[in-house]
Write a structure and sequence with these properties.
Coagulation Factor XIII, Chain A, domain 1, 190 residues, single chain, elongated, four-stranded antiparallel β-sheet, 2 domains, 9% helix, five-stranded mixed β-sheet, mainly beta
Length: 190
């Protein structure tokens, strides 16, 4: 299985946030629509906002968080470091958990963001799923978006270590971030 996103979805010509803001000036209904669509995407200088103006990336991932749906969990939330592919997360078998991605969008609209998760066990791909996150306008505040909800395997054969790779990409096949970790499923949280 490939980690690369599938072929791009045909789209209309890409228009910058600045050009979109300049178009249809004087049309009150279009200006109201653009204000709702773009929100705070345009700064006082008429350009798209950027949390990190010297960073040319359109999408900057700040973090990945797992929220557990189990009252007995030692932590309700677990924030995962982005640059540690050898990290191991211990999860109790059968527990439901939700993954959230925190990111900034800057310079331009991010169209069709999606997360593709690949789960492997002993080097064999078990599952690949893609979750559409949506399109996002630039803004100074971070987006916190629910990516996927999963249930940990249970039973003797389910209690093992799984490798997890997540790729954040868009409809134009731009890969914005790749995240890896291992999940060990045990009969309890220890």
């Amino acid at each position: 299985m490939s980690d690369q996103p599938q072929a791009p979805i045909p789209q209309a010509k890409n228009i910058s946030v600045e050009d979109m803001n300049k178009a249809d000036q004087g049309d009150a209904s279009m200006e109201a629509y653009k204000a709702k669509l773009l929100g705070g995407a345009i700064g006082a200088d008429g350009k798209a906002v950027a949390k990190y103006p010297n960073d040319k990336r359109k999408v900057i991932v700040e973090g990945v968080k797992i929220v557990f749906d189990d009252a007995s969990a030692p932590q309700k939330e677990l924030v995962l470091p982005l640059n540690q592919p050898d990290q191991i997360v211990i999860i109790k078998e059968g527990v439901t958990f939700t993954t959230y991605v925190t990111f900034y969008v800057q310079h331009d609209i991010a169209l069709g963001l999606k997360v593709t998760n690949t789960t492997t066990k002993l080097g064999i791909a078990l599952d690949t799923e893609t979750a559409m996150l949506g399109s996002f306008a630039p803004k100074m505040e971070a987006y916190v978006v629910k990516a996927v909800t999963n249930e940990a395997p249970s039973g003797f054969l389910g209690r093992t270590t799984y490798s997890f790779k997540s790729v954040l990409s868009d409809d134009d096949l731009n890969v914005h971030n790749t995240f890896q970790c291992s999940i060990t499923v045990k009969s309890d949280w220890k």
